[in-house]
Design a protein that fits this description.
213 residues; Glutaredoxin; 3-stranded antiparallel sheet
Amino acid sequence: MALTPSTMLPLGTPLPFAAIQAALSSGAAQQVSGDPLDLSELGRRPLLVLFICAHCPFVKHIEPELTRLARDFARTKPPQLDVLAISSNSTRTHPQDGPDGLRAQADAHGWRFPYLLDADQQLARAFRAACTPDLFLFSPARPSSDRSAQLPLLVYRGQLDASRPGNDRPLDGADLRRALAALQAGQPVPAEQQPAIGCNIKWHPGEEPDWAR
């Protein structure tokens, strides 16, 4: 296990919608669990993209808070947050992160948000995701007839909170919840953000991007 921080993608980066659409349409990414992903609705509400997997101890540590977050925001009418989970780990080296493992994880925690398997790892590259977990929060898209002009923009990336396996800090989602509260209140999300720390994404052997080496 290589302890790895987020790359901290620049704030204001647009959601890589075209990459998500292309990966799904080509079959390079497949949805393995959760409610059907409606691309026409993606980004109309705040969007939380989670790079997670089934086996990582850092992901296992935060699973209870991810469940609480999804449940809290699902209770609002209408929902105030969309969640999209992606696993980009190589199933050549980590078959436990294949479709069956991801479905079992989602079922165990009652997750209904869409969960994608990024088989060719293009989505991880599009987000410059580096670790599990790696979190990306996007503001809602601005109304426009031009899809390219209404892409959601990145307002938060980094850690869920300061809790790590064994450090006895509270698992409360404080950092992400603070960003969500600011976004919902129409206030700027504080730009001082701490990187997530976790296991490195398990790239296909010999296919690591330059920035992940």
